[in-house]
């Protein structure tokens, strides 16, 4: 290859990538502040399958909303943009939004809406994306949450894509300005600076380089004032700015600063990118040896982007290290999985350069033709398509001329001429240089020597202008470097001078303030000490009098409380004695009775004993307000078992929770239990057959369930709508109503009686008296 074509090769290779670089810059440089996300863009710790299972088994609360947002984020940010994944993502986001509305969880609702806005940005539906984030910002504006309103505008600005066709540039700037204004209002300096950096990046895209540089220098100054150490992203923007300006020396300097701050911060997530652009800057300025170690770092990285790894092959070719270049190229070509259009294009381009370098003209021609056959119109703008077509036609014409295929070369020369003349954008001189060099060689091969001389003159003129421009650029770079150094030194001198003056002023102010403050403090302390002493004396006297009064009242109250407890126990004791007297009288009367009268007396004895036992438990217990049913029920059952003498015939199975009931509930339940057990003993097991009676009492939070079950012959069916004939059943129904309980009778291999009620928190004597008055009609 001639020197002319080597120049075109490296120049064109990076000009194309330079045009595409801004999309990477605007989308990839910023770490989007997804304040509406429960999870970041990383994959969740749980697999999608585990997350889906947790969602299905979770309660409909905020935990489910969080899981739905996590799973939706997984599908949204999953590598590759597949419609099924995006549909799954928005489905989970909408489920989260609906559930948050039902739960009245506004913060979760607007997090979900933020993720839906992210979804529309992935779908490039910018109108819907903007609609959602404006809605979020409006809500937080109404609620006065400045921080979250600012985050909403900042996120929208970060997501909003700009191209030469969609006209979003001013909208994106306005969103960043709104976010910055709110951050400053909220005294959030760090995020305010980051928003300013976003505006500067847009000015780079607009080619307003001076304004962009001024803003980025302001960003650096403000970051350093805050003590913020993660400056690598800002230096990266500055290097990209200088690169597109053509100031490659400054681009290298800024890139080295970016790498230095990246390593100091420990944030190496963009290390491959920094290494790539440093190698690119060195390459473009033809410093191939300096570029090589950075290109090796790029090639050794785990980055899946095949496009950027081609830089190593290009640098090795420039250094005539063709063997190593071939090895590196084969590694790239062997990576066939998940290649993007840009990766494929870069591989074809670098393969053509390699085979051209080693004089495998047939393979070089093959790869250039592959590039021409790619579907550029789907992936690139028309201007970029025209440049790639130009490059391929110039290279194909040159290679055919070198192998004496003049007629084939003519076709490519003609295509090049048409492309150059019909281009809608100004083209770099390098393209014309290659074209005139091909025309010169073609006319020489055809014997058109006069035209060849004209072609040679035009080629040399462009070549000289390029050389002069390069020298002028070098001089300009040196001037800029000198002026920058002088400016930086002046800034440092001014900062040092200001720091000395400020230190002196601060010292004088401090001394004055200390003197004044010391005097005032001494007076305040003395006055406070005196007032404190007097106040303490007055307070002590009041406290002594108050304590004496409290002690007297406590003694009186303790005496009254002891007397009340004694009186209550005495009442319960006397009631119990009176009930036992009644039992004894009934027992004496029963000796002279038989049949139904005797049975009635015995039933009354059992009922009275059930009440008597409650009073006995009350006066024997330290707690005179409630009855422990776990102690009461076994004793009552034992009494009935002894009374009927059925210990060998009927077995009792008890399962009673430690439940404390008030007197107003314990007495009705004792009577119900007495009636149920008595009926079971008397009627469930005829002909002295053996059986079992189970009694359980369970406390399920605020409901208590009493269940009496026997395995006897079962009670007779009766109509629940009419009053039963049995005295015992009427008594149980009436007692259940008194304690607002539900009672249910079932016949299933015996009789099952279930009483369900709520525990009564009242423990006053009035409740007991009312309950006993209501029972008199049943006794």
TrEMBL record:
Domain Histidine kinase: 570-761
Keywords: ATP-binding, Kinase, Nucleotide-binding, Phosphoprotein, Transferase
Protein name per UniProt: histidine kinase
Family matches, as PROSITE patterns: HIS_KIN
Pfam families named among the record's database cross-references: HATPase_c, HisKA_2
Keyword Phosphoprotein: yes
Reaction(s) catalysed by this chain's protein: ATP + protein L-histidine = ADP + protein N-phospho-L-histidine
Annotated GO MF terms: ATP binding; protein histidine kinase activity
Keyword Nucleotide-binding: yes
Lineage summary: Bacteria, Pseudomonadati, Bacteroidota, Sphingobacteriia, Sphingobacteriales
Transmembrane segments: none
Gene3D superfamilies: Histidine kinase-like ATPase, C-terminal domain, PAS domain, Tetratricopeptide repeat domain
Enzyme Commission numbers on file: 2.7.13.3
């Amino acid at each position: 290859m001639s020197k002319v074509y080597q120049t075109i090769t490296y120049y064109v290779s990076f000009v194309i990538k330079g045009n595409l670089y801004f999309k990477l810059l605007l989308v990839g440089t910023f770490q989007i502040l997804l304040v509406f996300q429960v999870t970041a863009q990383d994959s969740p710790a749980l697999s999608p399958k585990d997350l889906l299972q947790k969602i299905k088994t979770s309660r409909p609360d905020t935990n489910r909303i969080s899981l739905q947002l996590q799973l939706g984020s997984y599908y949204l940010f999953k590598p590759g943009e597949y419609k099924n994944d995006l549909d799954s993502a928005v489905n989970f986001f909408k489920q989260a939004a609906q559930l948050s509305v039902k739960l009245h969880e506004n913060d979760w609702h607007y997090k979900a809406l933020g993720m839906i806005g992210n979804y529309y940005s992935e779908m490039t539906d910018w109108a819907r994306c903007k609609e959602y984030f404006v809605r979020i910002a409006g809500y937080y504006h109404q609620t006065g949450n400045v921080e979250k309103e600012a985050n909403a505008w900042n996120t929208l600005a970060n997501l909003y894509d700009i191209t030469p066709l969609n006209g979003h540039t001013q909208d994106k700037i306005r969103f960043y300005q709104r976010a910055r204004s709110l951050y400053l209002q909220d005294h959030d300096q760090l995020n305010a600076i980051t928003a300013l950096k976003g505006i500067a990046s847009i000015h780079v895209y607009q080619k307003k380089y001076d304004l962009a540089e001024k803003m980025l220098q302001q960003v650096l100054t403000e970051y350093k004032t805050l003590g913020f150490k993660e400056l690598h992203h800002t230096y990266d923007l500055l290097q990209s700015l200088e690169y597109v300006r053509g100031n490659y020396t400054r681009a290298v300097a800024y890139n080295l600063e970016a790498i230095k701050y990246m390593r100091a911060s420990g944030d190496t997530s963009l290390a491959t990118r920094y290494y790539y652009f440093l190698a690119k800057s060195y390459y473009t300025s033809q410093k191939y040896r300096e570029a090589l170690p950075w290109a090796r770092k790029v090639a050794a990285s785990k980055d899946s982007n095949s496009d950027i790894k081609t830089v190593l092959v290009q640098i090795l070719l420039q250094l005539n290290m063709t063997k190593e270049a071939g090895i590196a190229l084969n590694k790239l070509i062997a990576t066939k999985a998940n290649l993007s259009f840009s990766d494929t294009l870069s591989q074809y381009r670098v393969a053509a350069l390699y085979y051209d370098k080693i004089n495998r003209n047939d393979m070089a021609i093959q790869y250039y033709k592959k590039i021409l056959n790619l579907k550029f119109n789907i992936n690139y703008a028309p201007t970029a398509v025209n440049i790639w077509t130009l490059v391929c036609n110039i290279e194909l014409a040159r290679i055919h001329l070198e192998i004496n295929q003049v007629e084939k070369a003519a076709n490519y020369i003609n295509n090049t001429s048409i492309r150059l003349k019909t281009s809608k954008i100004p083209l770099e001189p390098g393209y014309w240089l290659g074209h005139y060099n091909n025309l010169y060689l073609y006319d020489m091969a055809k014997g058109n020597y006069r035209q060849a001389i004209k072609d040679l003159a035009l080629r040399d003129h462009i070549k000289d202008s390029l050389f002069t421009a390069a020298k002028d650029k070098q001089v300009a770079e040196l001037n800029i470097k000198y002026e920058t150094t002088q400016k930086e030194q002046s800034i440092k001198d001014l900062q040092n001078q200001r720091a000395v003056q400020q230190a002196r002023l601060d010292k004088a102010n401090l001394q004055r303030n200390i003197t004044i403050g010391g005097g005032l403090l001494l007076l305040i302390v003395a006055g406070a000490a005196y007032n404190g002493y007097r106040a303490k004396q007055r307070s002590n006297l009041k406290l002594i009098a108050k304590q004496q009064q409290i002690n007297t009242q406590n003694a009186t109250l303790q005496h009254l409380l002891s007397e009340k407890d004694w009186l209550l126990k005495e009442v319960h004791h006397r009631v119990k004695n009176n009930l036992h007297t009644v039992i004894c009288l009934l027992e004496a009367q029963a000796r002279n009775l038989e049949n139904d009268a005797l049975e009635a007396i015995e039933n009354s004895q059992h009922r009275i004993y059930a009440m008597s036992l409650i009073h006995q438990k009350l006066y024997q217990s330290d707690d005179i307000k409630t009855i422990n049913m776990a102690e009461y029920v076994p004793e009552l059952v034992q009494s009935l078992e002894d009374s009927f003498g059925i210990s060998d015939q009927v077995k009792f199975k008890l399962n009673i929770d430690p439940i404390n009931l008030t007197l107003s509930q314990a007495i009705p339940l004792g009577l119900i239990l007495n009636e149920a057990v008595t009926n079971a003993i008397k009627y469930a097991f005829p002909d002295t057959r053996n059986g079992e009676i189970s009694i359980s009492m369970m406390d399920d939070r605020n409901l208590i369930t009493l269940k009496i079950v026997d395995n006897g012959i079962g009670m007779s069916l009766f109509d629940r709508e009419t009053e039963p004939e049995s005295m015992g059943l009427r008594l149980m129904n009436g007692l259940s109503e008194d304690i607002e309980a539900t009672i249910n009778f079932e016949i299933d291999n015996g009789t099952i009686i279930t009483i369900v009620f709520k525990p009564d928190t009242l423990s006053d004597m009035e409740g007991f008296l009312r309950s006993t008055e209501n029972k008199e009609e049943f006794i």
